[in-house]
Structures are given as structure tokens and as C-alpha cells.
Amino acid sequence: MARKKLNGADYLLLLLYLDNKKPIRGAIRLMKMMFLFDKEISAILANKGLDSENLPDFYAYDYGAFSKEVYEQIELFRSIEFISVKDIMSTEEMVAVDDFEDEPFIDELYQRDSQVRRFDGKHFEYRIAKNGVAFLEQRIIGEGLITTEHLQVLEQFKKKINSLSPKQILRYTYTKYPEYTANSLIKSEVLGDE
After folding, report:
1. How many angstroms separate the CA atoms of 75 and 77, rounded?
2. What is the pLDDT of residues 144-185, one digit of tens each?
3. Where exactly are the structural domains of the chain?
4. If you average pLDDT over every residue of the chain, what do you get?
5. Does residue 122 contact residue 100 with C-beta atoms inside 8 Å?
6. How far apart are CA 76 and CA 79, in angstroms?
7. DSSP structure string for the chain
8. What is the pLDDT of residue 47?
9. Do residues 28 and 63 touch, judged by C-beta distance below 8 A?
10. Average pLDDT over residues 72-92
């Protein structure tokens, strides 16, 4: 029997879907969630019979591990209404969100800014939309490509990342994966005097 496989785009949608469809807030959180999925969670799922393919490639960039492919997936999913991306800088929800400034969505590719409180350069909320829910429920979950056990692993992972501040996420990834900090503009600010 062939092993089941999902790709990086499937996992991105699943992470947005799980935990009662709670949004993922902030580009750092989203990017590092996908990075840590690649480095740590995909192996756990493989041990449970679910392989991963076509995961995004990451490289060292201004704020650590970065993948242009993740942004391209977000833009594609937004264009086909699988997800919504909301600028929360101008909403009342700001009190509960990380303290970052608003900038164009894709500018992380080009912008250079080293102030710690502006790590991210974005203040977006990523949420699964009805079309994305329908796709997952019909094609991924409905066809049995993923088990309850796999979903539990992913949900626990999402809850953990959503519970951390951007600085905590950066500190963890910078400490555990120092090879991705080579081009970081904020490495000394994230790691302190280490």
C-alpha cells in the first residue's frame, strides 16, 4: 500500500483550518510555523505514516529562515479565495496582536529594518475562507488522506506557535537553527548578549 503524501500548500491550509479555524496573526508567526513544520513536524508525521512533498525551500534572510514560496502560496490562496488576509493594523483588535507596523505584504523580500519591535514589518491576520474549508473537507480530510492522529499533531503544533510571541519564536528558531541567522538584521537583538 502506498504511503499518503501531502504538500506544503496542503499543510498551510490545514494549519489555518485547525484549532476551530483560529487565524494566524503576523508574518513572522506564519513563516516560522511553516519553517518549523518543515524542520520538526514533517518528520513526526512521517513516523505516523504521512509523508510530505514539495515543502517550501527556506534560506537565511533579514529575519532568519524565509521562503518566498510561502508568500507565493499565500498570494495564490488569497486570489482563489481559499484564505483571507486582513490588515489588522487599523482594527480595534490591535491590543491583542503583536506590536508591528504595517507595510506592503511582499516587502519583506526587499525591506531592511533592524528595529526589534519592527521585526516583522507586517501586521496581517491569515484566516481560512469558505473555499479553503470546502477543499480541505472534501479533498484532504474527506478522502482520508489525513487521520485524526495527524490532525491532532498539527493542531497541537498550531496552538503552541500561536501561544508564543514573535520574539519567542525568533529566539527559538535562531537558537536551534543558527545557520538561518547568517543574514539576519536583528540577530543580536533577538539573542541578546549570547
Report:
1. 6
2. 889 999 999 999 999 999 999 888 999 999 999 999 999 998
3. 4-189
4. 83
5. yes
6. 5
7. -PPEEEEHHHHHHHHHHHHHH--EESHHHHHHHHHHIIIIIHHHHHHTTEEEESPPP-EEETTEEE-HHHHHHHHHHHHTTSEEEEE-TTSGGGGGS-------GGGGGT-----GGGSS---EEEEE-HHHHHHIIIIITTTTSS-HHHHHHHHHHHHHHHHS-HHHHHHHHHHH-GGGGTT-SSHHHHHTT-
8. 93
9. yes
10. 84
CB count within 10 Å of CB 13 equals 22
Tell the residue number behind the cell numbers 491532532, with chain if given.
152
Interatomic CA distance for residues 105 and 10, integer angstroms: 21
Q: Which three cell numbers stand for residue 130?
A: 469558505
What does the pLDDT look like over 4-20, one tens digit per residue? 789 999 999 999 999 99
Residue 167 in grid coordinates: 520574539
